[in-house]
Amino acid sequence: MGGMGGMGGMGGMGGMGGPPPDPFPAVKTDVKFITCSTCKLLAKRLHSQMSKWDSKVTKSEEAMQAKLADMCVVSSDEGSWITEYDMVESKDGKAIELKRQNEAGACEVECKTIVEACKMVVQEAELELAAGLYKSFNGKKKKPLDLKALTSKLCTSDDAWAANVEGGCAAGVPKVPKKRKAGPAFRPKPVPPPPPPPPEKDVGAEAAPQKDAEVAAAPKENAEANAEL
After folding, report:
1. Alpha helices (runs of H) in 101-202, residue ranges in sequence order
2. Secondary structure of 25-55 in HEC code, one letter for each residue
C-alpha cells in the first residue's frame, strides 16, 4: 500500500508541469438554473453583433460558427458581455436571475458559471443556429432574423435549437434548492495601474564620454603644435 502511495506521489509530481488549478472555477451545478436566461441574453448579444458582420461572415456557415464560439469567450469583443452580469438570487430563493451591472466585473466564479451556460447553449444549437442565420442572410428575403424571431428560434419555442439543453426555456427552468448557498458578491474588474514613467536621462553620464574624448585628444593637439615650432 505504501508503494502505491509513493506512485501516487510520483504521479502528482508529474502533474506539476501542467497549468495551475483555476482559483475561480465555475459552479456547474448552478448552470441549469441560468441556462434559459443566458440563452436569451446570448440571443440579444448575437443580434447586436450580426449588424457588424461583413460578407466574409454572412456568406460562410463556418465563419458564423467561429463567431458563435467567440460569443462565450470573455476576452473577445463578442463575449465581453458576460462580465457585465451578476447572478442574483430571487427574493423567494427559488430562482437565479442575471442582472446587468453598471460596469464590467472580474471574471470569477459566477462569470465562469455564465460562460459554462453560454457554451452549453452554443454547443447544442451551433449547427442549426449557423444554418438558420446563413439562410436568413442569403435566402430570398436576405433579411437577418429580428431579435424576437432569433430568441424564439434559439431559446423559447418548443422546437428551439437549444431546446434540449438542461434548464432550457422550453423544458422549464428548475427551481433552486433551499440548501444552495448564495454566491459571492459582484466585484468590479480591477483597474490596471498606470505604466511607470520613462527613466530620466542622466545628463552627467552623457557628458562624461565627451569630456574623456576631449582629454584624450589634448596630447595629440599639443604634439602637433610642438612639431610646427
Report:
1. 109-138, 147-151
2. CCCHHHHHHHHHHHHHHHHHHHHHHHCCCCH
Whether 191 contacts 48, CB under 8 Å:
no
The pTM score is 0.74
CA distance 100 to 21: 28
Mean pLDDT of the chain: 83
Grid cell digits, residue 51: 449588424
The reported pLDDT for the residue numbered 5 is 43
Pair 61, 137: CB distance under 8 Å: no
Region 67-77: what's the mean pLDDT?
94
What distances in angstroms separate CA 188 from CA 107, 129, 178, one per listed residue?
9, 33, 28
Q: How confident is the model at residue 146 (pLDDT cuts 50, 70, 90)?
A: very high
CB 32 within 8 A of CB 174: yes
Q: Do residues 22 and 108 make contact, with C-beta atoms less than 8 angstroms apart?
A: no
Please tell me which of 92-101, 203-212, 220-229 the model is most confident about, judged by mean pLDDT.
Answer: 92-101
For 85, the enclosing helix (H) or strand (E) is strand 85-89
Cell triple for residue 176? Answer: 433552486
pLDDT tens-digit series, residues 24-41: 889 999 999 999 999 999
Which uninterrupted H or E stretch holds 87?
strand 85-89
